[in-house]
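G., before I forget:
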Amino acid sequence: MCGGALIAPEYIITAAHWLNSNDENDPIDISTIEIRIGITNLNDVTHENLYSIRKLSLHHDFNPNTFKNDIALIRLDRTVIQSNTIQMLCLPRFTSYVYPSVNTTLIAIGWGHTIDPLINPNSLLPTHLQQTLLPVLPIFNNLCFEQEIDSPDQQFCAGYANGLSDTCQADSGSPLMLFTEQHWELVGIVSYGIGCAQINLPGVYTRVSAYLDWINDRIRY
Ligand code: 4AZ
């Protein structure tokens, strides 16, 4: 299970890694993927909130070793009608490798584990959509504390040195959001990490501001 964010009436942004087959002779079957839009409780699944993939665009330079370019665009089978419970996220205002700024607090949401499943193998996935606050961390010499990142211009870290909170398995693809100037922006995409909420090992996120051209070139209105 993974997350994503609606950025246009027919398009979802998510991570590439969970949709990427490492065997080019055996690509993933997109018809097997179910997309749910507009629910915060997994017991509320209906025909109406079920969508499927019309077209999948994985970033052509996604690197399965470093997770560089961990971004994908999904075109849905039909237009999503916006409502009180379904709204789009805006793309970042800036095309910049220093956006979001260090120390900005972002909101992460997702359906991933609330306890690291490697530490507690009985950890269940939550039934309700979860949220947490994660500050953007500084990067020195490709490190966020002890978490290495390959490409600081395209990736950033968010979280806490003491492991106060984090994203976790099954949060992949979910948005890190910033509320600014009366709108919500999609500034990060959950990409990877070593475990969850471990000391000095914050999560790593795709820096959406580095992909505005890539995204805009692929959306048809
Ligand atoms: C995952 O496997 C995953 N702690 C996502 C985020 C993090 C770790 C793992 C960050 O989807």
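The chain has a mean pLDDT of 96. Helices lie at 212-216.

More on Monday.
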